[in-house]
Every structure is written in C-alpha cells, then in structure tokens.
Amino acid sequence: MRPIFPFSLIFITLLLGALPAFGEIRNINKFLDQCPTNDPAIARIRGDFEIRRDGAPTALPSCSEPVSQMPSNAYTDELMLLQALRVVYYMDQGMSGHLPWTPGDLYDWMKSKVGGINIISSGGGPSCCTTINGRPFVNIGAHDDATREFQKKWIYLSVIVAVYAHETRHVDGFPHSSCCGATNGCDDTFDQANLSPYGLQWWLNKLWLDGTIDVGIGCEPPADFSDSASFFLAQVNTTFPSRFCATRPPVASMPSIPGGACHDASRRRAVSHR
Ligand SMILES: [Zn+2]
Q1: Alpha carbon distance 114, 128 (integer Å)
Q2: Which of 210, 271, 209, 263 is nearest to 20 (CA)?
Q3: pTM of the predicted model as reported, rounded to 2 decimal places
Q4: Which of 43, 168, 189, 257 is most buried, most CB within 10 Å of its CB?
Q5: pLDDT tens-digit map of 165-200
Q6: Which DSSP state fits 95?
C-alpha cells in the first residue's frame, strides 16, 4: 500500500492538469473541433442525458477531428447533440446566481428536469416532451445535411442549446400564447422572476453576448467574431423580443468586448491554433 500512495497523487495531479479549465470553454472554435469521444466527461454526459432516436437508444457516434472538416453526412444529429451537451456541461460549470430560474448552472438544472433528447427521424420542430422509462425527453426533429453543416459553427449550435433549454422549461409548464401572431409561438410577458421558455432563450443569448457566460468567441478569427457578436445582439434585440406582447425584454447595447476577452493563451502565442 505505502509505495502506491505518492504515485497515485502524481497521477491525479497529471490527470487534473489535462482536464479542461474549470467552468470555462476557452476557445469555442477549438472546443467544437474536438470530438465527444475524446472528452473525459463524455461518459458522465451520456449517463446524465440519454440520446435516443425514435425512442430507441443510440450508440456513441463516430467522430474525427477536426470536426469542422467532417463531411456533413457524418456529422450526425446524435453527434451534433452531444456537441451541444458538451457546451452545456462546460460553459458555466461551477457558476451560480447567473440564471434566475435556478441557483446553479444550466447542466444541473436540465439534468434535474429531463432524461435526455429524442431525435425524430421524420423531422419537425422541437417539442416537450415524450416520456421514456418514466422520464421526460425533449423531442428534436432530425436535420438535413445542409442544416447540420451550419450547426458545426457556434452561433448555430447555440440555437440548439437555447432551444433545448426552452423545451426543458416546459417540464415546469409555461404554455405559450399566440399573442404575437404565431400560433402557440409567443409568451405574453417577459418576467425575470418567472422566465418563460422564450425568456430563457433570451436570457442565455444575453449572457453569451455580454460574456457572463464566456465561451471564448473573443478567440474566433475576426470574421467569425464579428458574425457572433452581431448574431447574439440580434437574438437579444430582435428575434426574442418579437415573441413577447405585454412586456418585452430590455434592449441591450453591443458590449465593448462582446462575449468576453480571449483567454486562450495558445491562441495568442500560435499563428495557427490547430
Ligand atoms: Zn415552447
């Protein structure tokens, strides 16, 4: 026993050093180029959120790095959803008080509400929920190759993350209204103290915009960074306010550093980040 103890300590230290930084995604482009199969947290994520297709369990999807170079038809819905869940797992890990509807982080809240995601092969919009083994599963229609190609990029994958949060909110109720002109596509009131599903989506986009949840869009190449900043500002000021009727969310201005500054040291040192 005795000789093993110090070696164990060294091993644990090395292991911890290899894990992603606590509570942070340093560089979202690099993060999304990595495969779930190479993520030390993947067993835990798949244990907490089961991905099913048409009700049946799915296997761990094959994946090759960099993910951005994979053919669209190999970047399956199963793989795309695991990438979204990896983002949820890491993006605000250890943070508290930033989400008005729960004291902790998004991952723990979702885990407490749903058993996973059920892909519907015939397509269709997202909905809540199908009960499988006594747990609610969010339904998400399968996407075509062109859409999944877009979803390799953070701004489009962020839509999946926020939609998943929206649907999870329905486990708490929150039926929609049709007040904004879309049948059951609206919420009457934006109330920070009791956020509705579209309110949750607004809130997440606001935190991605202002950098409260910093996934490192500041490390993106200038064109992507500009796209990300404009995208999240439009989500916050146009897309989601149009879903409300009685009380709309507050208007945001473009932050001086949208999404937070780049903290990826390897990005700053290296000409190429891969
Ligand atoms: Zn809804």
Answers
A1: 10
A2: 263
A3: 0.89
A4: 168
A5: 999 999 999 999 999 999 999 999 999 999 999 999
A6: -
Q: What is the pLDDT of residue 22?
A: 39
Q: How far is the CA of 130 from the centre of ligand 1 (A)?
A: 14
The mean pLDDT value of the chain amounts to 90
User: Do residues 151 and 157 make contact, with C-beta atoms less than 8 angstroms apart?
Assistant: yes
Compute, in angstroms, the gap from residue 111 CA to the centroid of ligand 1. 18
Provide the β-strand partners of residue 47: none
- Residue of 257, 204, 215, 214 lying closest to 30 (CA atoms): 215
Residue 8, φ and ψ in degrees, nearest 5: -60, -40
What distance in Å separates the CA atoms of residue 274 and residue 251, rounded to the nearest whole number?
A: 37
188 CA to centre of ligand 1 in angstroms? 13
CA of 170 to the centre of ligand 1 (A): 7
Q: Considering only the C-alpha atoms of the chain, give the largest distance between any 2 of them, rounded to a whole number of Å.
A: 71
Q: From the CA of 177, how far away is ligand 1's center (Å)?
A: 10
Q: What are phi and psi of 221, to 5 degrees?
A: -60, 155
Please say if the pLDDT value at position 164 is more than 50: yes
Instruction: Calculate how far, in angstroms, residue 261's C-alpha sits from the geometric centre of ligand 1.
Output: 33
Contact 140, 120 (CB under 8 A): yes
Q: How far, in Å, from the CA of 15 to the mean position of ligand 1?
A: 41
Residue 18 Cα to ligand 1 midpoint, Å, equals 39
Distance between Cα 171 and ligand 1 center (Å): 10
CA–CA separation, 135 and 170 (whole Å)? 14
Please give the distance, rounded to the nearest whole angstrom, from the Cα atom of residue 197 to the centre of ligand 1: 6
The count of other CB atoms within 10 Å of the CB of residue 247 is 13
